[in-house]
């Protein structure tokens, strides 16, 4: 088709838009920062291009929005796209859409091109951190089914925007007789997204086909459908583009420390279950003091526990640690939907006060009125000297078992690496159809306590230090058939003769210390954790080779996971799993990179918290 014929089709399309009330003959309408709507009657008579400027600053950053008549309704019908973006936390926002707008690659009138308006805004000092581009319906008339042509037109805009901003560009739809043109354009969008880490696209054709939208031409929507699309656009844009931003420095690591200690497994022991033991259910502000004097070896500096909330009446959290004033850390979060537990490693209180000697305390926090029963199981101790075992972290967490390809099971056997006396593993459950629990123990030994409680539905995970059996195996057992996944993060091996000279890591317990909280900028990142974003935080002093603590994922937008590693270039494995909207904690023991750096990756927008409870010293290097 020649250029003249293409132009005839574009003009015919513009005539159709004018006939349906989306013309562009009047001067532009502008909405200021204090106005959220546009004179509706004047738009119906002769709707001009729409520009909306909202000056309110949001925590997620600034956004430019530019589009053609497909986007016009997103600024015309309330709640507008600008309204929905502001609700998500974006701002300031500048929006412009008009009939006939294009990329500008084909030399059309400047006022009808995105590059003209983006350049004009830059001249005014407006250069947003993020750009939403909703163009293509008009450019496809020139490119037709030529993907390379569409690619050049898209890159014309991307290059004009320049490096720095994130670009989010929905795919296009067209009238049914021209879907081949839309498919070519969308293939070009996919190509750009595959080439660039700062470019994102959204499958609007599938959303239009399955989302219950009204449209007469498979391109523009009926007025009642535009607010729904604006909501979805704001959500999808935020999910794809929102990122944590650097907001400050690292946390002060000056904190009380124990002597270096080695791991001593203890047969799992239930320390308290307030469902049957005194003092009964705990209220917000209550503190349970658990005496460990008769449960752990002399010289114990820290213990490994499993802490669970049972029969909670509302939302809250439990914090385990040395007795004394409670800090801001949390061991396990819960809500009224059912039991929730998490493992932890915490320092013991070894003060001279007989009431506090070799004790840990578990405090209950949350809104006033919440109550919960508390269950605490002892799983091992860290003891000064070389009588125990030292940690040997893997270069990167390694998936050693995954039953999902073969189907649900109730038992999984792990073969321990040669020479390992205990394993540091992360156990995950997937595909649960009923609530249940998982235990981990040397094969042939019955485990009296749980390592993980799970519910029907979303994945759940828990870390554990598990002793290896005489036959070199560890058995993971579920109370009901589920898919089981196991990731090995480290091994424990006996301290060799000669003490420090032969390596291995000893544990240095600390008072719980919050290293990262994307809600308030602790650790240097805020205001959230972006999907697929890796945050590098200082999690230990330079002399430490590994860190132990509690990792918490807070209300992810989708069912998701968070992973924390030593920044090695390896496929991420989950450290904690959470359903959409849930808050889940899990213990973490992993190596750190140089200077104590820990890399934390979230698969979905969420907030992430990490509380360190100890560091691991290279005994040979620090001897």
How is this structure best summarized?
The chain has 623 residues and is an alpha+beta fold. The chain contains 10 helices and 33 strands. Helices cover 17% and strands 39% of the residues.
Question: Can you offer a commentary on this structure?
Answer:
- The protein is of the alpha+beta class.
- Helices cover 17% and strands 39% of the residues.
- The strands form seven sheets. Strands 1-2-4-3-5-6-7 form a seven-stranded mixed sheet, sandwiched between helices. Strands 18, 19, 20, 21, 22, 23 and 24 form a seven-stranded antiparallel sheet that branches. Strands 9, 10, 12, 15 and 17 form a five-stranded antiparallel sheet that branches.
- β6, α8 and β7 form a beta-alpha-beta unit.
- The longest helix is centred in the first third of the chain and has 17 residues.
Q: Helical proportion?
A: 10-25%
| Biggest sheet, spatial arrangement of strands | 1-2-4-3-5-6-7
Rg value: 29 Å
**What percent of residues are in strands?**
35-45%
- The secondary structure category is alpha+beta
Ends apart, CA distance between termini: 79 Å
Characterize the main sheet. Answer: 7 strands, mixed
